[in-house]
C-alpha cells in the first residue's frame, strides 16, 4: 500500500550514481522529488529521465532536489544514462538509486515485502508497481503521491504546477482551485474564519458562495 500524504517519508541509506546517501540528510532543508522506474533500458522511462534532466533548472529554482530509483544496479544506470543522452538530448543530472535489495521500493509500498532475489532476473512487468512520484517537504513529510502505469509517461509540467501550489499553500493559508497556475487567483483556506480573513485581506474577497472566498495570489 502506498504511503499516505502527511506521513513521514521513510529514511534509508542507498547506493546512487552519485555515491552513498542517507535520504533525510540528503534532503536537508530542501524539498525533494523521488520518482521510481520498474527497470533500466525501458522506453517510457528513458523519455522521462531525459525530460527531467532538461527541466532540472526549474526544480532548482524552486529548491527541489531530484532523486530517481530503479531496482537495477548503479552500474547499469550509468550505461542507461548514455542511451538517455543519445536519444533524449540530456543525461540524468541528478542521483539515481540502485535499489537492488528492494529496500526502498518496499519501504515506500511499491513492492510486496516478500520480494527477493536477483533484480536482473525480474522484468519490467514484474516491477510495474515501481512507477511512483513522491513529493517530500523540508519537514520530511509526504506532500503528494502520483502512481503511473508503465504505458503513460509522466507530465513533469503538472508536477511543477503542483510544487508551486504546495509551496504557496505551505507559506500562506490558501488553497488553489482546479487548473490553477502560478499568478492566478486562489481560495482562502477553510480553516481561516471570516474575522481572520478580514485582517489578512483587508481589501476583501469575491464570494460566489460563503464557502468559496477568492483572493489574488499572495506575494
Automatic annotation (TrEMBL):
Keywords recorded for this protein, A-Z: Antioxidant, Oxidoreductase, Peroxidase, Redox-active center
Keyword set includes Nucleotide-binding: no
Gene3D superfamilies: Antioxidant, Horf6, Chain A, domain2 (3.30.1020.10), Glutaredoxin (3.40.30.10)
Organism of derivation: Bradyrhizobium shewense
SUPFAM superfamilies in UniProt: Thioredoxin-like (SSF52833)
GO BP: cell redox homeostasis
Protein name (Swiss-Prot/TrEMBL): 1-Cys peroxiredoxin
InterPro entries: AhpC/TSA, Peroxiredoxin_AhpC-typ, Peroxiredoxin_C, PRX_1cys, Thioredoxin-like_sf, Thioredoxin_domain
Record family assignment: Belongs to the peroxiredoxin family. Prx6 subfamily. Belongs to the peroxiredoxin family. AhpC/Prx1 subfamily.
Domain Thioredoxin: 3-168
One GO location term (cellular component): cytosol
